[in-house]
Amino acid sequence: MKRTAMIGHLTPAHAGQTVTLQGWVNRRRDLGGLIFLELRDRSGLVQVQVEPDSAAFADADRLRAEYVAEIEGTYQTRPDSQRKGGLADYEVIATRVKVLNTAKTTPFELEKGDSVAEDIRLKFRYLDLRRPEMQRNLVLRSKAVAAVTEYLDREGFVQVETPMLTKSTPEGARDFLVPSRQNPGEFYALPQSPQLFKQMLMVAGYDRYYQLARCFRDEDLRADRQPDFTQLDMEMSFVELDDVLSTQEGLMAHVFRETMGVDLAVPFPRMAYMDAMNLYGSDKPDLRFDLKFTDVTDLFQGGEFKAFAAAQAVKVIAAPELTRKQIDELERIAKQNGAGGLAWLKRDGDGFTGGISKFVTAQAAELIARTGVAQGGTLLFTAGEWKKAVGALGAVRLALRDLFNLAAAGPQFHVSWVTEFPQLEFDDESSTWTYMHHPFTAPHPDDLDLFGTDRQGEIRAQAYDLVLNGFEVGGGSIRIHDPAVQAKMFQAIGFSAEQARDKFGFFMDALEYGTPPHGGIAWGFDRLIMVMSGATSIREVIAFPKNNRGVDLMALAPSPVEPGQLADVGLSVANSED
Fold it and tell me: Where is the Aminoacyl-transfer RNA synthetases class-II family profile domain (predicted)?
C-alpha cells in the first residue's frame, strides 16, 4: 500500500482517519499486554499503539529498533493525561503491521549519538545520518541551496560547471594530483577553486556566473576544513566593489530568511583589515560581543619595564575579574598563539595589584581612563612584534568569550565585511613577497605606483571577506583585468616572465582579448551551514565527510590500489622503509 503521508505532514485534519505510514522503529515498549512503538521517518516521529486483540499484534511483536515497518491504523488524539502539544498529542491505533525489513542491533544507540565517539559515527555514517539532528542539518543545507538558486537566477546569474581535471597552479595549498594514463608522466590537478575559469567566463561575456563548486585542497585538517568541500562561487562583470558587496548582502539575507526565518540587517557593517586586527586581533572578528583592544604602546615606550619598553606594539584588553587559574590558562592560550607571555593587572581602587603592578604606578590613571576597566576587573597585555601581539590577544579575546558566554548577549547572527587587506605580505622563510589572497586580486588604483618599491607592503588590495560569528564564510575581490597590472603582480611575487607564462599562459593570453572589469567571491558553503545550524564542525553538515586525518572511515578511503592500476599510469609505490 502507499503511505498516506509522511509522519511530520500529518495534521489535526487527519484525526479519525485511517492512515498508512512507513518508516523505522525508533523504540518499542511492552506495557500491560499492549505494544507501544515509535515510528520515525525523515519528517518526524509518532507513537503507535497495538492492542492485544488486534490482528496486527503478532506482526508488531516481531518489531525491534531500526526495523523498517509499514503501519496502518486510525490516527487519533491521545488521552488528555498524555498530551504534550503538537504531534505528541496524536497517536496511531494500529490495525495492520507489516515488517518491510529487519535490522541488526546497531553499534551505538542513535538517540545517544552526540556522546558517541566521532570515528564510530563516521564508520557507520548511514546510521548516524538517521538521527534527527543530522537530518535537520542536511535539510537546512538543501533549503539553502534552493534559496541560493532562486535568488541568483532571479538576479540574472548563469550556472556554469567548470572542469574537475585541470592544470596544477600555485594557489596557496597543495594540489591533489591525478596521473594521466593517456599522457604518461603528466598529471591533472583537482581544482582548489574555479578561479581562473570563472574569470575567463567574464572574458567570454557571460557577465554573471555562479556554481556550487566541488573543490579540493591537500592541507592539514581542522574542524572547519575538509580535503574535498563545496564553495558557492560567483563572478560579475562591469562592477565595482560596492556592487559585489550589495549583491552578496541581498543573497545572504535571502538565504537566512528563506531557510531559518531570520531577518539580517543590511547593509552589513564594514571594517578595514588594520582596524579589525588592531581592535580585535583577527581578520574575522566575532562582533556579537564588544570587547576591543586598547593600544598603550606609547605609555611604555622607552620606560623602565623592559618587556614593554622596546615592543613594536603593546595591546591590552579589559576583562572581568579573573582567578589566577583562569589567568594561567589564558596565558597558555596566548603563548600557543605566538606571544612570549600574558602580562596582567587587577584593578584595586585607583591603582592595580598583582602581575606587573609594580611597573605601572605612573601609568595607572591613564590605563584606567583608556580601558575603562571595572573595579576588580583584570587587564591582560601582550607585547612584541605587532602581528604576534594582536593575534595572541585575539585568541585570548575568544577564550574570554567562551569563558563568560559573552556572545549570548548579542545577536544570534552577526555578519560583517572586512576590507582593504594588504595586497602583499612578506614571507620570512623564503624572504620573498607573496600574495595575501591570490595573485589575481586587483590592487587599489591609488597604490599602483608602489609596486617594485620598498613600500609595496603598503599596497591595499580590493579584497573583502564575509564574516559570520567569527568565521570567514566568504572571500573575494575585484580582479585584475589589465594585462600590464597582472604582469606587475606576478613580478612582485617573484615570478619571472617565463614562470608566469608556464603557470598561467592560457590566462594571460585571455586577458589580451578584451577583458571587462570584474569581481567576485566564493562562500565556504559547508562552513556557512555549520554556523547556521549551530554545529561545531563542518563534518556535521556534510553527508559523508572525512575525519580529522582525511580518512573516510565508512568507505575506507584512501586505500591501496592494484599494481595493474598503478602500471596503467606508469607509477609504482616506493617502500616507505627505503
Answer: 138-558
